[in-house]
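lol ok so funny story. i was supposed to be doing the assay writeup but got distracted and ended up predicting the structure for this chain instead. priorities right. anyway since i did it might as well share w the group, maybe its usefull for someone
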Amino acid sequence: MNGLEQNLLFAVVGLSLVTSLVLVVVRMVRGRGHDDDDRKPWDDLEPK
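and the output, tada:
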């Protein structure tokens, strides 16, 4: 595995980590925006 492949792998992994982190933050901020329905954030993880 040469240096270029390693850098590419780190870039892909880093990008997916950043993307999932941004999605979590956006979901938390949106959930805090409307508290009228007192659902927990982890209720979305359970199937309906």
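The radius of gyration is 17 Å. The chain has a mean pLDDT of 81.
back to the writeup now i swear
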